[in-house]
Write a structure and sequence with these properties.
This protein is α/β, with parallel strands linked by helices. It has a domain of 290 residues: Amidase signature (AS) enzymes (Alpha-Beta Complex). Helices cover 38% and strands 13% of the residues. Helix 4 links the parallel strand 2 and strand 3. Helix 9 crosses helix 11. The structure holds glutamine. The site of glutamine has 14 residues, from strand 4.
C-alpha cells in the first residue's frame, strides 16, 4: 500500500500544491487501494472514477499554471449514498432508488467542488439511513476494516470504513441519531454531528428532517475541521440552515484543556454498557483531568427517555418522508400496467423497500394516527423538550458533557440483525444530541482485543470550538492500538 494514502488531508493539500505529488497520482492510488480491498470491505455502492480523474487532472493543470486552488485541492472525499451528486446514481442503499440518477448537486457537493475536493464515490449505508450496522443495505453489508467479521457501525458504515481502510482520506455521512459517530467509533476514527442547521441539508435525501445533519468523518481532528469549514454555513436552499457566525475551528487545534469544565452524566453509563467501554471512557476523563480540566458526576434524569422519544419521532418523520416513493412519481416502478393504481402502489413499495424500512413506516404511521398521536408523537415531543431544557441547564455549569459513543464494542455481522430492539438499544447515547440539536463528536480513546472504543463529547449549540479543542487534546495523548486487517 502506498504511503500517500496515509497522508492527512492538509499534508495532501500542501504536497499537491507544491507539486511534490500530483492529484492524479494520488487519486490513482486511491482507486488501486479500493480495487485491492473492496471485495472484503464493500464500503462503496458506486465509484465515480471518471469524474474524479478528470477533476484531479484539472487541479494539476491549474497548479502548473500557478492558478489559485481551493482549501481541499486534490483531497478525495467519499460521499454517503443519500447525498445527491448531479448525474450520479444516488440509491440510499435501497432497491426503491436503485436506478435514480440525481439531476442536481446537494449544497455540500457544490461547496466541496468549489474547494477542489475530489468526489471518489458513493458509500454504502443502511437503507435510507435506518440502522446502526450497515447490514440493512439492500446491496449487502460493509465489513469493519479492523475485524472483517464485525460490523463497521451505521448507518454511514461505508463512509467510515472507506476512511479507516485508507480507500479515501475523508468522507461525508449523515447523522440522524448517531449514524456518523457510531461508525466512527466502531472503525477507530473521528466523526462529528454538528449543531442542527450548521450544514445545509439541501440534497440530502430525508429520513427524519428535524434530527439529521450531514456530518464529517476523518482519521484525525485537523482533517475533520478542514472538511467542516468547507461545507458549513447558511444556505438559502435550506431554511433550517443557520449563520454560524465566526467560529474559527482551526484556531481550536491547540493542546490545551486547562479550565474546561466537564459534566459526566451517570445515565450515559446505564445498564447494557460494557465494562471495558466504561473503563476506557473514565480513563479518557482522568487523562483530561490530568491535563487541567475539571469534572463532576451529574444526573440528567430525562436522558433515560431519550431513546424511546427518538425512535417515535424518527419513525414518524420517516413514514411521512417515505410516502412519496410510490413508483408513479418517485422510485421503483414495476411493470404494472395490469393493476389499478392502489395495487400498483402497494406492489412497488413491497418490492422497493426492505424489511427494516417497512417496519419503521408502519410504526411511524401508527404513532401519528388519530387516537394515538397524543399518546406517542406528542408525548415524544414533550420528552424532547425536557431533554433540551435539562441539557441547557447543565451547560450553565459545564462546557461539555462526556460519555461513551457506543455502549458496546463493534458486534459481529448478524449478531443483532434478528432483534430490532437490540439494534435500537445501541443508539442510547448518541440520539441525545440529535434530539437537542447540539453538536457531538466521537474520538477514539482506547481499544479492547484490537477493537476500538470511542469517547463522545457534547457541547451547547454552536460550540463546536469546545469539542474540537478537547478532541484535539485527547488525540495528542491517547493513541489506541489498532491494526487494519486489509
Ligand atoms: N441508528 C439510528 C436509527 O436507526 C440512527 C440512524 C442515523 O443516524 N441515520 O435511526
Amino acid at each position: 500500500m502506498s504511503r500517500i494514502l496515509e497522508l492527512s488531508a492538509s499534508e495532501l493539500v500542501s504536497k499537491i500544491r507544491t507539486q511534490e505529488i500530483t492529484a492524479e497520482e494520488y487519486v490513482n492510488k486511491c482507486y488501486e487501494r479500493i480495487k485491492e480491498v473492496e471485495d472484503r470491505i464493500h464500503a462503496f455502492i458506486t465509484l465515480t472514477e471518471n469524474i474524479a480523474l478528470e477533476k484531479a487532472q484539472e487541479i494539476d493543470s491549474r497548479i502548473r499554471k500557478n492558478e489559485k486552488v481551493g482549501s481541499l485541492s486534490g483531497v478525495a472525499v467519499a460521499i454517503k449514498d443519500n447525498i445527491c451528486i448531479n448525474d450520479v446514481r444516488t440509491t440510499c442503499a435501497s432497491k426503491m432508488l436503485e436506478n435514480f440518477i440525481s439531476p442536481y448537486n446537494a449544497t455540500v457537493i457544490e461547496r466541496l467542488k468549489s474547494q477542489d475536493a475530489i468526489l471518489i464515490g458513493k458509500t454504502n449505508m443502511d437503507e435510507f439511513a435506518m440502522g446502526t450496522s450497515t447490514e440493512h443495505s439492500q446491496f449487502g453489508p460493509t465489513h469493519n476494516p479492523l475485524d472483517l467479521d464485525r460490523v463497521p457501525g451505521g448507518s454511514s458504515g461505508g463512509s467510515a470504513a472507506s476512511v479507516a481502510a485508507l480507500e479515501t482520506t475523508i468522507s461525508l455521512g449523515s447523522d440522524t441519531g448517531g449514524s456518523v459517530r457510531c461508525p466512527a467509533s466502531f472503525c477507530g476514527i473521528v466523526g462529528m454531528k454538528p449543531t442542527y442547521g450548521l450544514i445545509s441539508r439541501y440534497g440530502l435525501i430525508a429520513y427524519a428532517n428535524s434530527l439529521e445533519q450531514i456530518s464529517p468523518i476523518a482519521r484525525n481532528v485537523a482533517d475533520l475541521v478542514l472538511l467542516t469549514e468547507c461545507i458549513a454555513g447558511q444556505d438559502n436552499k435550506d431554511s433550517t440552515s443557520i449563520d454560524s457566525g465566526t467560529q474559527n475551528l482551526k484556531n481550536c487545534l491547540v493542546d490545551d484543556v486547562s479550565g474546561v469544565k466537564i459534566g459526566v452524566p451517570e445515565e450515559l453509563f446505564g445498564i447494557g454498557t460494557d465494562e471495558v467501554v466504561s473503563k476506557a471512557v473514565w480513563e479518557a476523563i482522568s487523562k483530561l483531568e490530568g491535563l487541567g480540566a475539571t469534572f463532576s458526576k451529574i444526573k440528567l434524569e430525562s436522558l433515560e427517555y431519550a431513546l424511546a422519544s427518538y425512535y417515535i419521532i424518527a419513525m414518524s418523520e420517516a413514514s411521512s418522508n417515505l410516502a412519496r416513493y410510490d413508483g408513479l412519481r418517485y422510485g421503483l416502478r414495476l411493470d404494472d400496467e395490469n393493476y389499478d393504481w392502489s395495487t400498483a402502489y402497494s406492489r412497488n413499495r413491497d418490492v422497493g423497500f426492505g424489511a427494516e424500512v417497512k417496519r419503521r413506516i408502519m410504526l411511524g404511521t401508527f404513532a401519528l394516527s388519530a387516537g394515538y398521536y397524543n399518546e406517542y408523537y406528542l408525548k415524544a415531543q414533550r420528552v424532547r423538550t425536557l431533554i433540551k431544557q435539562e441539557l441547557s441547564k447543565a451547560f450553565k455549569d459545564f462546557d461539555l458533557i462526556i460519555g461513551p459513543t457506543m455502549p458496546i464494542l463493534p458486534f459481529r455481522l448478524g449478531e443483532k440483525l434478528l432483534d430490532p430492539l437490540e439494534m435500537y438499544m445501541c443508539d442510547v447515547d448518541t440520539v441525545i444530541a440529535n434530539l437537542a440539536g447540539i453538536p457531538a463528536i466521537s474520538v477514539p480513546c482506547s481499544s479492547s482485543q484490537g477493537l476500538p472504543i470511542g469517547v463522545q463529547m457534547m457541547a451547547p449549540a454552536l460550540r463546536e470550538d469546545v469539542l474540537i479543542k478537547v478532541a484535539f487534546s485527547l488525540e495528542q495523548h491517547l493513541k489506541p492500538d489498532l491494526e487494519l486487517k486489509v
